[in-house]
Automatic annotation (TrEMBL):
SMART domains: TPR. It comes from the Eukaryota. It comes from Plumaria plumosa. The lineage of its organism: Eukaryota, Rhodophyta, Florideophyceae, Rhodymeniophycidae, Ceramiales. Seems to be required for the assembly of the photosystem I complex. This is Photosystem I assembly protein Ycf3. PANTHER family: CELLULOSE SYNTHASE OPERON PROTEIN C, TPR-REPEAT-CONTAINING PROTEIN. It is a peripheral membrane protein.
């Protein structure tokens, strides 16, 4: 049974009904509609913690989806799953692919920064200070880009950049 028929909560059901109506009205190809169904089912599975199912749906959506902007969000969501599973290298790959298609995706920039910051903390705890500084500098670079796109977001990152003297640096 498709995930869209399994949704139990009112908001998910409402979204599904509205999305189905919109898809019937909009002049989109059968392939684009199918890609959206996979993407929607992927988001639903992801929100329920069903990451394997979500990945299957996202990969199917990637095969069908042609629009670069829409593909960027699919890639971003795949990155989210890998990051939540601790597979940071894979997450970084997908975030970067998303940014190649949509450079105005501050949440991908933020998530890249979060991973580099985590790696910096890990290196500092292992007393690998050169690696730590390098990871923190990378985190700062990506956070500055995210903040530039979304100045009212990422307040904790802005505070970290200020307290570490990295807020206004233009090079790392």
């Amino acid at each position: 049974m498709p995930r869209s028929q399994k949704n139990d909560n009112f908001i998910d059901k409402t979204f599904t009904v509205i999305a189905d109506i919109v898809l019937k009205i909009l002049p989109t190809s059968k392939s684009e509609k199918q890609a959206f169904y996979y993407y929607r089912d992927g988001m639903s599975a992801q929100s329920e913690g069903e990451y394997a199912e979500a990945l299957e749906n996202y990969y199917e959506a990637l095969i069908l989806e042609e629009d670069p902007y829409d593909r960027s969000y699919i890639l971003y969501n795949i990155g989210l799953i890998y990051a939540s599973n601790g597979e940071h290298t894979k997450a970084l790959e997908y975030y970067h692919q998303a940014l190649e298609l949509n450079s105005k995706l501050p949440q991908a920039l933020n998530n890249i920064a979060v991973i580099y910051h985590y790696q910096g903390l890990k290196a500092a705890n292992q007393k690998k200070y050169n690696i730590s500084k390098s990871m923190f500098d990378k985190a700062a670079q990506y956070w500055r880009q995210a903040i530039n796109l979304a100045p009212n977001n990422y307040i904790e990152a802005q505070n970290w950049l200020k307290t570490t003297g990295r807020l206004n640096k233009t090079t790392t």
